[in-house]
User: Fold this.
Amino acid sequence: GQQLNQSPQSMFIQEGEDVSMNCTSSSIFNTWLWYKQDPGEGPVLLIALYKAGELTSNGRLTAQFGITRKDSFLNISASIPSDVGIYFCAGQSAGTYKYIFGTGTRLKVLA
Amino acid sequence: KAGVTQTPRYLIKTRGQQVTLSCSPISGHRSVSWYQQTPGQGLQFLFEYFSETQRNKGNFPGRFSGRQFSNSRSEMNVSTLELGDSALYLCASSLWGGEGEKLFFGSGTQLSVL
Assistant:
């Protein structure tokens, strides 16, 4: 099935460190969504992006819609233990009514 | 406002059986989509419904089907279950806001096929 390239695949970081992850696509998207998923639960929406170049924050999280419309970035500042989980990006092309998801970034925070 | 509700939460079936999963969207949301999540394939789009009409369908065999009712609730059905159908099935509802669409997921139905 279709998946977006998301990197890094996993990362261990120390509490208090900043984290960066990104998603790339071969297609142009008009919407990028970022999610966090805990084990056995559904993904929870973190940030939504709709315009190329857009930069949006949600607390310690900041995401950007790439200017080429083929990539997006998520940054987490001053990580805390509860940031542990899997982060997914999702992109949608205009008029398709479906989202393509990234392969996920598994984040582990060492206290 | 209640979130997306999926039932049942867990399901165990045997090969050859069929299964029906249910999804109640967030009140006011008219679009419902379904995704299959497995460790190997990640999150894969199954289909999307809006006002009881399927607007898009993913690359899954015809054994996977869905429908949406007039109250926006949705069901998906998998017939002749195979071992490979074991997965977390996620339902999402969405609403277009001022700038664009936001997709909200339920907790999923964990299906195990034995």
User: Anything to note?
Assistant: Chain A touches chain B through 28 residues (CB under 8 Å). Chain A is about 0% helix and 50% strand.
